[in-house]
Amino acid sequence: MPFPSKLLNDNEQVVLDLRPHWSTLFKPAVVLVLAVALTVVWAVADITALFFIFLVVTVVALVYFVIRYLRWTTTNFVVTTDRLVYRSGVLAKHGKEIPLERVNDISFHQTVFKRMLGGGDLVIESAGERGQETFANIPHPAAAQNEIYRQMEASKARDADRMAGRRDLSVPEQLEKLDELRQRGVISEAEFETKKSQLLDRM
User: Fold this and answer.
1) 5-20+75-152 architecture in CATH?
2) Sign, CA torsion 172/174/177/183
3) What are the structural domain ranges in the chain?
4) Contact 87, 12 (CB under 8 A)
5) Tens of pLDDT along the chain (203 residues)?
6) What is the reported pTM?
7) How far from chain centre, in Å, is Cα 62?
8) DSSP for 40-56, written as a single string
9) CB 100 within 8 A of CB 158
10) Is 39 helix (H, G, I), strand (E, B) or coil?
11) Secondary structure tally for the chain: helices H, strands E
12) Residue 15, SS3?
């Protein structure tokens, strides 16, 4: 199911809403197909004992597939204009959130097999207690990595414009806020110097 819009902050928009790669359903689907096939074979052969055994196996395989499918459809890796959100759980929900301004580094890992299928793992390093988080089975992780970087740059630009454009602060106060953003890594040194020059010209 899609990420609920009611969980978004004001002026926040969803950029990516990804479920785990479809390959996570491959194993339970194969087990279910094999169980159904064997049940049909023994039904046609009219071997009652084996038919009932494989009928039970088929029911178990179906339950296994349904559980995995529900987990798949209720797991979201979401990139918004403000943060990264990971939510999972059918009944009980579990979630992780990382503000874009706290993301320090993003890398991805793909085995040869996962690369052929278009899946992989994203590793996100952030400032704070959690440090490094691994999000497994992300579809097209390189594209997700690039999109996160784009949103980080856009977020930095918005924060810089918001702080530099505030008219209710004096120039020294705006310079102080800009320096705070620079120290936190929200804006680069070059961006800081440009905004600083613009503010000093007003004095």
Assistant:
1) Roll (2.30)
2) negative
3) 5-20+75-152, 28-71, 165-200
4) no
5) 677 777 777 788 888 889 998 888 888 999 999 988 888 887 777 777 777 887 888 899 999 999 999 999 989 999 988 889 898 887 777 888 888 888 888 888 888 888 888 888 998 988 766 678 888 899 999 999 999 999 888 888 877 766 655 555 677 777 788 787 877 766 778 888 888 787 777 66
6) 0.66
7) 28
8) HHHHHTT-HHHHHHHHH
9) no
10) helix
11) 6, 7
12) strand
Q: Which residues pair with 14 in a beta bridge?
A: 80
Cβ atoms 83, 98 nearer than 8 A = yes
71-100 residues labelled b (16+ CB within 10 A) or e (exposed): bbeebbbbbbbbbbbbbbeeeeeeeeebeb
Q: Which residue has the tokens 């702080």?
A: 163
Among 189, 190, 195, 124, which residue's Cα sits nearest to residue 160? 195
The one-letter code for the residue type at 118 is G
